Amino acid sequence: MESVDFTIHDLLHELAERVSGSEFFRIGLNGSPVDIPRGVHHLFIETKNVAEINEIILDLGNLRTLIINDDPYEKYPEKKMKTYHDLEKFLGRLFMRLTKLWVLVIELNFYTSELSVPASIDHMKHLRYLGFNFRDGLSGLILPSTFSKLYHTQTIDIPCFRASCPENMANLIYLRHISAPLSFPNIGRLTSLQTMRSFLVKEAQGYELKQLMHLNKLRGSLTILGLEAVGSKEEALEAHLCNKKRLRELELMFLWRKSFSPDVEAEVLEGLCPPKDLRELKISFYNGSRYPSWVLSGHHPDAPKHLHKLELYSCSQLAAIPEDSELFIGLRELSIHNCDWDRLPENMECLVSLHSLWICNCDKIELLPTLPHQALKTIGIEGCPVLSRTCKEEGHPNWDKIQHIPEQRFIW
Asked: 9, exposed or middle or buried, with CB in 10 Å at 0-12, 13-18, 19+?
């Protein structure tokens, strides 16, 4: 989830500080921790040395909110927490001492390949929001089995590449936002969920695609992986994607391991019709024999009506574009990446709203079709040696077909 900054007038800020009294307190980089009121409930600390303020923080037993922001410009101070052991020890003590916290956010200039959250986190019975941000990188996250006891948790904001968690995480029925790539069974019980980075379908109980059926509050972006594990259109329909009306970006990924025939993949994709207001769609590793009716037909009742961006990544050959397709008529950006195609659709001129066309790592494509003339402003070609070269050769058919495009980008 992205953070949002607000700026207010100095006078308004001063008034807010006076009204809040000693319940809210902020310490800037030049402030002194000794000035913190003992009864403070909400504390923001910007510091150059987290280790130096540990003991003072841990004595503030009435805290409800604690936000620690390590100075982003002070990367190598002499007394900084430098090791994983230091961090784990600090977190363990914090969980044991500050048991009334509702919000805990820690932003550090710290690198660790993996963070194992101490089991003592189960003392934080009131925790609603947990956020860790390691500006120098966090590859992996391990949540302990005790985390599933934090029944009031609403937000887990820990950006990382991989994560593991207890299997009974579905007990946290008040969860609303998950930024970490957590995978656990029976996520369909979390009907309050609004933000979920990804969902991995598995051939195991509790990981079926139908777990998405009642998660109709999902919004923003979602990636669904492992679609090769879905065996039929009927299974795909159980996800009820068209009911996720707040989704704006969706990626459907079949991965590279194929369990079924191209015809089965086509049926699965047919059942995954996105909501009408979807803005961006990416389809990855799809080798189906045809494209779904909600892509090709302008008359499908649930098809996206306002799609701005379509990306096809390592997909089978695109059929001719139907000229009555609302999806394609309104399309503004089309990206074709790593596709083993020998040509683009011949009737691309019907993409009357297309602003940008990107062709990347499709080295079999050597000739361009007639491209849209009115709206097209940018064409980008990368990793297509023949296409890039001929588009720059004056008099070549490819060169002629792009002369009306103001911005041309070529990367060999």
From this structure: exposed
